[in-house]
Amino acid sequence: MLRCINVPIQASYFLKSARCMPISSSFVPRSRPHRYCLLDRLFTKAVPSAMNEQQTLPPLSAQDFKVYNRGAEKMDYFHGFLRRSWNLLWDATTSGRRPASMTMKQFITEGLSFAEHLEIHHGIEETHIFPYLAKKMPEFRTGRGRQAAELLRQHQEIHNGLEGFRDYLERCLHGEEELRLDVLRGKMDGWREVLWTHLDQEVKTLGAENMRRYWTKEEMARIPM
């Protein structure tokens, strides 16, 4: 049990000794003598909740919103290409018919191009963008297993599924297997949900309301997006 003593003492001593001391008479009315833990009082004032901090942020002007939302807009632009390519492939597997304007080879090449573009996109993020953002944002920090940020764990899960998808299409391209749309769908279904969750979550994380919590407007211009 912490022991309170009636000796005036500096706040720095409290931080070192972690002992509860009485608040001086200037803090407590003489008619209501109480003993307080000054250490608790100090930390209560010094550490406001993140929710309260976020609630007190002033609204962004249209110009400032554009500055802080720059990364989200660029990311959503690139994700748009991936979404369209995925939808073309997925729609063919669910309908059982590839697009009438595409030959079998063109369809397979579309799938392989999607895989290549996704790998390049994630490679750029993990090499240049995420490490920079991770200086201030825990959403992009690396680590082993569950210690890694969720967005990076999603990358790994996506690439685990992408590997089987790409290998199947390469075998079909080289004539080692005949392309079957139901088989291709099975190669996509296992990581479809995490892919779409990731594409949306990444853009939201780079949105203006989140970025303003970590970066100044001047710093936003230096982010290698």
From TrEMBL:
It comes from the Eukaryota. InterPro entries: Dimeric_xanthone_biosynth (IPR053206), Hemerythrin-like (IPR012312). Signal peptide: none annotated. Residues 72-205 form the Hemerythrin-like domain. PANTHER family: EXPRESSED PROTEIN (PTHR38048), HEMERYTHRIN-LIKE DOMAIN-CONTAINING PROTEIN (PTHR38048:SF1). This is Hemerythrin-like domain-containing protein. It comes from Aspergillus parasiticus.
